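This section describes the prediction task in plain terms. A model, or a person checking by hand, is given the sequence of a single protein chain and must write out its three-dimensional structure as a string of C-alpha cells. No templates, partner chains or ligands are provided. The sample shown here is typical of the held-out split.
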Amino acid sequence: MELVPSSGGVFEVTVNGEKIYSKDETGLFPKAQEVIGKMEA
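The expected answer:
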C-alpha cells in the first residue's frame, strides 16, 4: 500500500495500476468496507 499525497480533495484508490474508486467521480468519500470489497473482487 502506498499513500500518494495530492491536493484539491481528490481521493482515489488504485490496485495494480487500476483505479477502483474515485471520490472525484462519485462526489462521495467511500466507506472502508466498500473499498475493501472492491479490492477483493
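For orientation: The helical segments are 23-26, 32-40.
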